[in-house]
Amino acid sequence: MVTEYGPRGPWETSDTSWGSDIEAPGVEKSDYYRGWTDVIEPGSRGNGLGGFAFVWRDGKHATDTWFPLFRSDGAPTSSIDALEKAWTGTAPADLGPEVQGITSDAAGVSLDPGAGIEATLDASDPEGGALSATWMLAVASYAVDNDEPQYCELIEDNALSVELDAPRQPGPWRLVGWAEGASGTVALASMPLEVTGDSEILTLPFAVDSYYSAAGWMGDSDELTRTDCTEATLCAPICHAWSWNPIGTGEWVGVYWQSPSGNWGDEQAPTVPPGATSITFEAWSDHENIEASFFAGMGTDSFSVREDDQLLSTEAQMFTLDLGSAEYTEVLGAFCFSVSAPDDGGAVNLYLRDIRWN
Ligand SMILES: [Ca+2]
User: How many Å lie between the centroid of ligand 1 and the Cα of residue 234?
Assistant: First the structure.
């Protein structure tokens, strides 16, 4: 019995010179599943009981690509074709794309922020069918052990060859290309990118989730748990969902977005250039009239903006925090919310989406 089998983990594969994990392209992942099912097929050694393909679920988020056999929007990957053949003896009539990798002038080089990149997804359909592509720029991390949504952005070009701009924020990134054929089955290749420059200085405008973590839990946070936003979209603006079961009426709970994660003031915070005018975001709840406060700036920050008595409803609403007169430089707390327990003291779900410094 093989209790789980699949592609090698990030801890087993080679890294780039700057330390990013190198993810196997679609064909290589399919080969791992095929290889394992050949070995453990019942009868092949006389004692095989079978095994569990790792892992039979959707990606939790668009950036959770390493192990899931389904993309975050539910599309099956070509690795499932290999499993179907192993399990039933018959491959699907219309096989998914075979993706060998990405060819790009940005492979293995240091990029300036915003540099032009050309990339081609080396993909084909086994039956010779047409393929389209979905490209995304994502943070280098794979969310293998992390439920927190991570930043990514879609590139609005569905051709197998694209031109795009490198991220403007220095750091390790990756370019992910998904090929899709008529069957709806998808397969990816993933290329690490290195953007060099001063990573302590952010570039406006920015999505708060691209540089800050929703890690600073406060108040009645022992009763706060992460849940999922229900959207099954690919690389949508990051949506956070929490379920809070207050220990009583009169309680409150809050979350600060921090950089780096867990920084309450002991570590250097990123510098944000002057000129930001507002912080915008959407917020809602599963209850009507949940009372919320929204703020930015904490601890050693040289500014503080705050809006109290904001009411959340069951529909997503856009909120704005005015930064017009805020004199900030390093920003420790880029965003924060707190909410009060509902009048009945019962459990409440909270949603925050697409938090941006403009
Ligand atoms: Ca096909």
Answer: 22
Whether residue 271 is found in the same domain as residue 177: no
Q: In CATH, what number is assigned to the domain containing residue 278?
A: 2.60.120.260
CB atoms within 10 A of CB 356: 18
Domain that holds residue 245: 206-357
Give me the helix-helix angle, 26-40 and 79-88, nearest 10°: 20
Distance 129 CA to ligand 1 centre (A): 6
d(CA 121, CA 200): 32
What pLDDT tens digit does each residue of the chain (358 aa) get? Answer: 889 999 999 999 989 999 999 999 999 999 999 998 887 766 556 777 888 999 999 988 888 999 999 999 999 999 999 999 989 999 999 999 999 999 999 999 999 988 999 999 999 999 999 999 999 999 887 766 666 777 888 998 999 999 999 988 888 999 999 999 999 999 999 999 999 987 778 889 999 988 898 999 999 999 999 987 766 678 878 889 999 999 988 899 999 999 888 999 999 899 999 999 999 999 999 999 999 999 999 988 999 999 999 999 999 999 999 998 899 999 999 999 999 998 888 999 999 999 999 9
Q: Ligand 1: distance of its center to the CA of 86 in Å?
A: 18
